[in-house]
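thread: overnight batch results

M.L. [08:02]
morning all. the overnight job finished for the chain we discussed friday. pasting input first so we're all looking at the same thing
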Amino acid sequence: MEFAILGLVFTMLLCFVVEIGMTMLMQSTLNEAAQAASRLIRTGSVQQAGGQPAPFQAALCAKVKLLMDCAQVRYDVIAGDRFATLPIGVQTDADSQLVNTRFVPGSAGQNVVVQVGYTRSLYFPILKDVMGHHGNLLILSTVVFQNEPY
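M.L. [08:03]
and the structure it wrote out:
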């Protein structure tokens, strides 16, 4: 009888630790990917290649492909002359996915905000009511910088 009570608590605690551990690993991976891909914008590589998001997406996918489905990674890139005028609010839909998916890398000297998000489903159904929104958890990474003169 005692083991049944303690076993349930131990199992729930173990599930919670695994869930948080995976979330932290994914957050760290997404941060690394966002910084690496943002460097292509900051140095002007993306702008000089036509300003299309393909090189940015490729850099993101190269870093996250082991843990995340690259097709589910969404991003919002916006540039402007002043940081104060850039809209940096995060808008999500009912499934906790990013809604804004613009790609405006800006030009030399402009300020840029890059937000990269990945919505993951929680592994353990027992935690879906405690964490996330309907069992989905948005992992978000934000990189803010000023484009270099190129």
